[in-house]
Amino acid sequence: MPRLVQTTPFRVSMVLALAALVTLAGCGSDAPPIGLVSGTVTHNGKPVPNLTVSFMPENGRPSWGMTNSEGYYSLHWDEDHDGAEVGTHKVSVAYIPGSQAEEVGRSKVAPATPEDRKEVLKKYGIETSPLTQQVKPGKQTIDLKLD
Q: What is the per-residue pLDDT across 81-90, written as a single tens digit (0 to 9) for each?
């Protein structure tokens, strides 16, 4: 006669916990198709440091990157994924001062003058930017000339 295996509440809860972990592990990999994007931001031919560059897709999660002293940026979709969603994006910038002196316009390090920054932010800020870019699968360079 076959022996019936008794199911204890502990075994049931362990099976349910394992099923939940497997389900949650799959959720973390549900990122959309992403293209690796980097480039350089310039204004009047000079690199623009300390800008936050935002790529906002028509539908989906925005990506961002910050320019270094040479105007170079690379985009991040989230803490686990670099890049931006594949598709059309509105592109905008925001200025982040690198120092107190730079914030008040006294820095000799920054290639862009405070007037240049005001002009760039007025034209390419989140509300006013006319820029759009197409992100494709794979690695790509998207240079932004903010002239």
A: 999 999 999 9
Non-local (6+) Cβ contacts of 12 within 8 A are: none
Q: Which residues in the chain come in under a pLDDT of 50? A: 5, 7-27, 111
Both tokens assigned to 138: 């794979």
Inter-residue contact 96 to 66 (CB < 8 Å): yes
In the chain, where the domains are located: 34-145
In this prediction the pTM is: 0.71
- Which helix (H) or strand (E) segment holds residue 102: the answer is helix 100-103
Rounded to whole angstroms, how far apart are CA atoms 79 and 77? 7
- CA pair distance 16, 22, nearest whole angstrom: 10
pLDDT in tens, 124-135: 999 999 999 999
- Right CATH number for 34-145 from 3.90.1150.10, 2.120.10.90, 3.20.20.300, 2.60.40.1120? 2.60.40.1120
Please, which residues bridge with residue 53 across strands? 65, 93
